[in-house]
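PROTOCOL LOG
Step 1. Enter all chains and additional molecules of the complex.
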Amino acid sequence: MQPRKKLPANERRQAIVTAATHLFSERGFRGVTTRELAKACGVSEPVLYEHFADKRQLYAAILEQTAASNPSLTRRIDEAFASNLEAPQFIHLIADTIVRFLDKNPNYSRLVLFSALEGHDLAQLNFEHHMKPFHTMLMKRLQADIDRGKLRACDPAAAARVFLGMINQYFIYDLHFGFSISKTSRKKAIEGMVDIFLHGITK
Amino acid sequence: MQPRKKLPANERRQAIVTAATHLFSERGFRGVTTRELAKACGVSEPVLYEHFADKRQLYAAILEQTAASNPSLTRRIDEAFASNLEAPQFIHLIADTIVRFLDKNPNYSRLVLFSALEGHDLAQLNFEHHMKPFHTMLMKRLQADIDRGKLRACDPAAAARVFLGMINQYFIYDLHFGFSISKTSRKKAIEGMVDIFLHGITK
DNA sequence: ATGGTAACCTAGTGTTTGCTAGGTTAGTGA
DNA sequence: TCACTAACCTAGCAAACACTAGGTTACCAT
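Step 2. Run joint prediction.
Step 3. Record the structure below.
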């Protein structure tokens, strides 16, 4: 065991947030003790309290970072919306982007869902920052396509909900099956769902 | 304060389970203390331990009852499947039945989701007893309609997933909005989603 | 009426929790 | 090189936790 390395405040703080994100996403706010947290960070408990006033504020910092970050996902989504792809290719791209993100960030959905269930003040942050804007953008895009006569005259709000629910179901299945489905059959499942969704909104 | 009423074991046990179901669905397993539990039941803590070996077994009993019960929902779903309604009416009926159930049992989804997230042994019980059979039945029904030429040749497994995800999204929105949406707009939202789903699977 | 007992209680147990007082060490600038 | 301080530690607090030993009371059969 080599002597412990001392880190500057900002780096240590980030290390704590990273480790805590893992733990909180696995077991929720109440399921993680500050002792575990400290051990996972490789430091002692008082160090946590030099960066965060209490456990709740540490949790809040994590939720905030989670909701504010994921720049790669946001960027790719924005790119998809900015592109002039036709509806089918556009929907495929969006679905693929989100599912790929969820595969690479298995913590994400758990963290968000835990915070919502546990009723944390900042639980709606992700909803307001990601889901709602996405929902709005998707609605507008679909409405535009309907106006252009590219899609049939369905309710764009309902369509956006179906799409989000469809993608979300992907996570629920993972939650129950424990990621036991192979990547290939997963890809097929997504394609099947997108296929039905597209048929549902096109003439 | 009138003298406390003594209940026979089976009635007291059921009273405990009922009260505990409420609390656990609101805050999850770790979010509820045995003291709260006892208070909510109107008894002292040792009474809990005369009916259940420990907190986990009480929780297990609740999950078991939740997964095994809801006979009204199961019966109505079975009736819908047994009926010879055409696909559109059938899908409308199923969606309406489930949504109506979720409105009357706001605890249900939370309890199931909490147990899944917290990784309880019996978490898959509901999935195995309700979701999976329903998924299978829906798949078979859709496949039959596809074979009869009533529906287009889509992937029935994917279709079932889209349907479940769509319904599930209804709960997620409630989770975030806190049941602030009025019943009428809710009904409209469901109808819009069912509409898209139906268009997605019909020719 | 009254004994027997199922149903319930008070008053704790040891353990774990979030959090802290007060001391120690590693790294840096002069 | 050495003093200063940011970064870290050990040790332990009070409160809350799941759970229990041992005594009390309401109810029912006789």
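Step 4. Note key features.
The radius of gyration of chain B is 20 Å.
Chain B has a mean pLDDT of 90.
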